[in-house]
Amino acid sequence: MSNDNQSSVSSNRDRVIIFDTTLRDGEQSPGATMTFEEKLEVADLLDALGVDVIEAGFPIASEGDFEAVSAIARRVKRATVAGLARAAFKDIDRCAEAVKHAVRPRIHTFISTSPLHMKYKLQKEPAEVLEMVTAQVTRARNYVEDVEWSAEDGTRTDIDFLCRTVEAAIKAGATTINIPDTVGYTVPEEYERIFRTVRERVPNSDKAVFSVHCHNDLGLAVANTLAGLAGGARQIECTINGIGERAGNAALEEVVMALRTRADVLPYSNNIETSMLTRASKLVSAVTSFPVQYNKAIVGRNAFAHESGIHQDGMLKNALTYEIMTPESVGVSKTSLVMGKHSGRNAFRTKLKEMGYELGENSLEDAFNRFKALADKKKIVYDEDIEALVDDEIGHAGERIKVEALTVIAGTMGPQTATLTLNIDGQSQTKQAVGNGPVDAIFNAIKALVPNEATLELYQVHAVTEGTDAQAEVSVRLSENGRSVTAKGADPDTLVASARAYVAALNKLMVKRLKGKPEPMTARLKP
């Protein structure tokens, strides 16, 4: 960070920097791996959303991760672009190479500081770790002015040692100090006290911005994040939809709306355009195939839904009776176009914009054709139907394997039989298979067409809307060679949705291009 930027932060103590790590920590969620193109799309939206720092990835992890970070660094126009690096010179060098073309490059480097991590993970003595802090920050500072240093497992670190490492990092040139709750262990009062103590005891603490990074293992990530602000932190590390390792991270939309809604007790400003929050949530859910729980705060399907008669009566009289924020403030429109089989492309395009979607012409045409087909089957097309349809279209764009046709024979007489046609790299291939039920028969047919060793870990069906003509949305999780991926498929026919979901998951696992007759699949996903 330049001296001018540092002075700006110092002079505006209530300005909070929003650091989004959806593309790094979020992508480390099992099954949440994004493609190169998906990462660029998410990065573009984060920049438009007003995120101050985009942590684009872990460049040393793989060639794909390096290329994605490098492309995002060149692409992002406003935000700082950060890459993560361990306390190893080759990590820092690789990270510097990846972010060097950013308008505002940052190297984010870290090392474990808790007794447990130092003994078992690093197998190093505290004195060695302290030396490594100075060396790694110095190395990073030789490349960029903006260096962030993190004390991994900081909330379980001895406070005296934590102060010594923080002092060393700042002395070596770190401009941001992150004290993460790496394992989601702390509680709000304790986390606030840690920041207050470190900032009071470290003599050069005023030369750096302090940062919070909270995991949600005890469901306290957002509460701890806000407590960190009370303790003097002025950077928040978070993710869209709260995705991340294990139970996830603090959710960006929850933290930002808490600051906006309770400005009376949380007097901190930020640059987030809150009307884009729902759009961001939907995009990240679509590209990761991680569904957003219905009762998720801010962006959940039920966040602004009222079924109780008492609540409905209050809402009709005054929305403030049961809503502490307006739907419009997070990008949910109260008004809607009634969509049906007579709706045209322009109405459909307008509807998608209201719902936060911006599709290219080809994707729009494909989505519109699927919408018209759905409208012919359903009497009423709800917003949720369109959302599922478009998310499914986005999630399946560019796949090498696609479902072309499916016929299933099922019933009490058996055996259940599926005849499936897949388009594999432009070639149509058909197989018939039997199974213990229609879904099993479909999946057996897919395996016959695309031999693989993937294990089905999850098969889940839910109706998008009410009624017997509701669209089905199917989630499938497959694992192969220790890697897990999750994908969704939507269709008025549950069996077609099942086939689409399974094939989408296979596409995520696949890295070898299939030519002619499909070959056995081996997953080689990024770490």
3D structure, described in words:
This protein is an alpha/beta fold. It folds into 3 domains: 3-288, TIM Barrel; 335-395; 398-509, Double Stranded RNA Binding Domain, CATH 3.30.160. Helix content is 40%, strand content 19%. It has helices spanning 3-11, 36-49, 63-75, 89-99, 115-122, 126-141, 159-172, 188-201, 221-230, 252-261, 277-288, 309-317, 345-354, 361-377, 383-396, 438-449, 494-509, and strands at residues 17-20, 53-57, 80-85, 105-112, 147-152, 176-181, 209-214, 235-238, 401-409, 416-424, 427-435, 455-463, 472-480, 483-491. The strands form 3 sheets. An 8-stranded parallel β-barrel has the order 1-2-3-4-5-6-7-8, surrounded by 8 helices. The protein has a 3-stranded antiparallel β-sheet with strand order 9-10-11. The protein is globular.
What's this, in brief?
This protein is 40% helix and 19% strand. By secondary structure, it is α/β, with parallel strands linked by helices.
**What is the CATH architecture assignment of the largest domain?**
Alpha-Beta Barrel
CATH superfamily of the largest domain: Aldolase class I
Per CATH, what is the topology of the largest domain?
TIM Barrel
Strand-residue fraction?
A: 15-25%
Query: What overall form do the CA principal axes indicate?
Result: globular
Strand order of the biggest β-sheet? 1-2-3-4-5-6-7-8
CA radius of gyration is 25 Å
Secondary structural class: alpha/beta
Low-confidence stretches: 1-13, 306-312, 511-527
